[in-house]
Design brief:
There is one protein chain. By secondary structure, the protein is an alpha/beta fold. It has one domain: Rossmann fold (3-Layer(aba) Sandwich). The protein has ten helices and six strands. Helix 1 runs antiparallel to helix 9 and helix 2 crosses helix 7. It is globular, with a radius of gyration of 20 Å. The N and C termini lie far apart (57 Å).
Length: 335
């Protein structure tokens, strides 16, 4: 059984600075999305992952460019972590032509196939079997690609979770399943409706898998774990199930004030903010304040530039409404 590491993985400064920069970009971009929503420039709901950046950043750095990411509707960070353009993500949230999907997909369907971001899935658990299928394709073709599938703790009580794990083990597929356990499903604490403490890891043994629990707020710990199981899957060692313990700073969605959380819980988790603890670690390792300040300024400038590009982009023309409906073209091809 693997438990939360007591010491961070030994890494070079270059990797650590890359991890810090990516966490910053994810945090600043998500915060900007919230600001744009308050300005009525982002319509509808969306689901932020503020507080969970260490997981997306660590896997984004650890994965190969040709690996695949499958994520949930809370997928902005995972899409950006694979290298999707920031203006493309913000543009999509704002419904603009520069968006990743031309402004037609919105927050819950971010996709950038060229970057290996194979979609955000709004149906709970729907993407776990899809990720298994992609892994089967890689296995069949011998490409050593790995599918990485991110999901929330609530997904562990969905049938697709168990079905996908079962077949992944039977066929020894190169897929890594990552549960982002932020303690809550939508508004319900996962512990109040689940018989085990760790909803993913405690069920791993039922499928012959190792129990793996990692501190999801520690980018070093997640990165080291990701490298280990990505490499094992790549070399034919089969699937893995990793449970990352984390916490979302905001409610389930924009409409949720999160008032169901016990008093003091959020404050305790804010002390373990992944960016806060990582910055402190870098300073402790001798990286100077000026270097970190430069990364912070650079990341914010990148978000500002992406915001202006997205704001200036026009909304999709009505003539685009029937395009990309079918895999082989628009509805005109079928009429």
């Amino acid at each position: 059984m693997s438990q939360i590491p007591k010491e961070p993985t030994a890494l070079g400064h270059d990797i650590r600075l890359e991890l810090y920069k990516l966490q910053l970009e994810l945090r600043y971009c998500e915060k900007r999305a919230y600001d744009l929503f308050l300005q009525n420039l982002i319509k509808g709901t969306s689901h932020l992952s503020l507080g969970q950046e260490a997981i997306a950043a660590a896997f984004g750095v650890a994965m190969r460019p040709d690996d695949w990411t499958f994520c949930t509707y809370r997928g902005h960070a995972h899409t950006l972590a694979r290298g999707a353009s920031m203006e493309g993500v913000l543009g999509e949230l704002m419904g603009r032509q520069c968006g990743l999907l031309g402004g037609k997909g919105g927050s819950m369907h971010l996709t950038d196939v060229a970057k290996g971001a194979m979609g955000s899935y709004a149906i709970i658990g729907a993407h776990l079997p899809v990720a298994a299928g992609a892994a089967w394709s890689a296995q069949y073709r011998g490409t050593e690609q790995v599918a990485v599938c991110f999901f929330g703790d609530g997904t562990t009580n969905i049938g697709a979770f168990h079905e996908a794990l079962n077949f992944a083990v039977i066929w020894k597929l190169p897929v890594v399943y990552v549960c982002e356990n932020n303690l809550y499903m939508e508004y319900t604490p996962i512990g109040s409706v689940t018989a085990v403490e760790h909803p993913a890891a405690d069920r791993a043994a039922a499928y012959g898998l190792e129990k793996v629990v990692v501190d999801g707020n520690d980018a070093d710990a997640v990165y080291g774990t990701a490298l280990k199981y990505l490499e094992r899957a790549r070399k034919g060692g089969g699937p893995a199930l990793i449970e990352c313990m984390t916490y979302r700073h905001s409610g389930h969605s924009r409409a949720d004030p999160g008032q169901y959380r016990p008093p003091g819980e959020l404050d305790r988790w804010l002390e373990r903010d992944p960016i806060k603890i990582y910055r402190e670690r870098l300073l402790g390792l001798g990286i100077v304040e000026a270097t970190l300040a430069d990364l912070e300024s650079e990341s914010l400038r990148k978000v500002d530039a992406a915001t202006e590009t997205a704001r200036a982009s026009p909304v999709p023309d009505i003539s685009e409404i029937d395009k990309n409906v079918w895999a082989d073209g628009s509805t005109a091809w079928r009429n």
